[in-house]
Amino acid sequence: MTLNLKDADIRAVIATVSEMTGKNFIVDPRVKGKVTVISSKAMDADEIYHVFLSILNIHGFATVPGKVAIKIVPEVNAKQGAVPTIKGMRNDDQYVTRIIPVENVSAAQLVPVLRPLLPQQSHLAAYATTNILIVSSLASNISRIMNLVKQVDLASDSEFDLITLKHASADEVARILSSLKPGAAKGAQAVGVKILADSRTNSIIISGNKTERKNIASIVERLDTPSGGSGSTKVIYLHYAKAKNIATILSGLSKSIVGKATAKGGAPKAATQVNIQADESTNALVISAAPDVVREIEAVIRQLDIRRAQVMVKMIIAEISADKSAEFGINWAAYSPSSNTPLGIIDLNGSLSSTIGSVAAGQPPSIVGTMLGFGKINSVGEGFVGLLQAIKGDADSNILATPTLVTLDNEEAEIIVGQNVPFVTGSYTGTSSTPSNPFQTIKREDVGLTLKIKPQINEGDSIRMEITQEVSSVNLSAQSATDVITNKRSLKTTVMIDDGQILALGGLLDETMSDSDRRVPILGDIPLLGWLFSYKKSTKVKRDLTMFLHPRIIRDGKQGMAIASRKYNLLRAEQLKINEKQLGLISGDAPIVPEMNDFL
Known about the structure:
- By secondary structure, the protein is α+β, with helices and mostly antiparallel strands.
- Helices cover 25% and strands 40% of the residues.
- The strands form seven sheets. Strands 16, 17, 18, 19, 20, 25 and 26 form a seven-stranded antiparallel beta sheet that branches.
- Helix 1 (10-21) runs antiparallel to helix 2 (45-58) and helix 8 (243-263) packs across helix 9.
- The longest helix is centred in the C-terminal third of the chain and has 25 residues, at 557-581.
- The chain is elongated.
- The relative contact order is 0.07.
């Protein structure tokens, strides 16, 4: 079972978890809110319930188990309900009560030390009669408190101090103090003093006798000071991001970062200068600033220097077209034997004069279709002629293109497959007064397939995609144009699509029909004989164009390798298939890509 939710009502989530786990819930009327959960793998009922407890914890609610059902109440009221008391160790988000016995120190002395380490809604109290601690909180919080108690509950007369640091790092100060303790050089445990760091509150917990605690506190006070004006320089090597881009971002944020560090009691104004340089050759950042400012910058870098997912986009462009045409008609001409000039011409499609001239010169006419001529004509120019012409044309085409492109999240990518075709943009011809060499100016443009994408991966594996796509080709059938004509089909859009889904981006269904009827007035309207003086032409053009989009998110190298392997093996299989047919005129095997394992 998987649990993937986006802005779901928390009560609907409770009902879903009840069905999955078989548990009964009683929901407090104050339990309200929206929940978002992203799960990448299947979980059993117990795992789903632990995730559910974490969801409630994040939203400020807790569970109180009962005999028949589990109550879901605000966390601040949970400690007043029938919270179960546990004995063993648990590390989940169930709200429980735990009794922690203290043997060597006063439980009452531990309360002010441990209280700041628990959430405000939790309960912590000491029972002096039996020297125990009573804690009501999440099981994970209680587990952390028990580990701290175990380390400070030593057999000695020591007491405890909690020192909250203002400038230095608690972990770093604890490391320095541990190296100063007696026996630390030999790896032995120091006797009489214990130092613990709590990173969440940036505090140091010191246990020991009064003299030891006083000495340690004095050292901590000297270590917890603002950094000096000289600052420090650090080189940070990036794993994924480009150093130049990160340097630009950090330079813009440097003032706010310095302000944050100063607010914490960090570097004074004299030491707040920040210098960030990018070394592109090693993809590293060189940072010069006060130590506390450097720490703030490092925290920002850790969040920015992450591996970005990639998106593989596959486009399917399908176009089916069917062109049909038909022509039928008769043209007439009569010539005078004396003047070698036509007495009359009925030329309904504009091809009669050129056809007669070619025939009279003994050359084949440049016509398309079937022609049937009759009559008499010679070089002197006498006689008459009738020309019957019939043409029928069918042209079908099926175009399929499947370009594929891979790019990083939020990065633009482009692929162009085609030709660079010259187009005449101007010409110059000299005159008799200004003789010179004639020339033409041309402009080259890409003709073919162009795909430009910019994906953005959103929450829930949805992808926002900016797409610019164009398919163009040279129209060789156009005869009347003064220059080259191109057919162009382009699309520019922004869409939202889920990972692995197929989306129809757009399409065009175009059907055009035209009929023309040319005839001689009066003669063309004579019943039964009118067709002898008419010319008809019909055309039908049908085009069906559709474009599809299929994106896939590639989150790691393993997934990218699997996709590349499928593409590679498909290419090799096609090459082997073609090689078996021996289509070439030259004998011998065509070159084939090596097997995937050999290529690696």
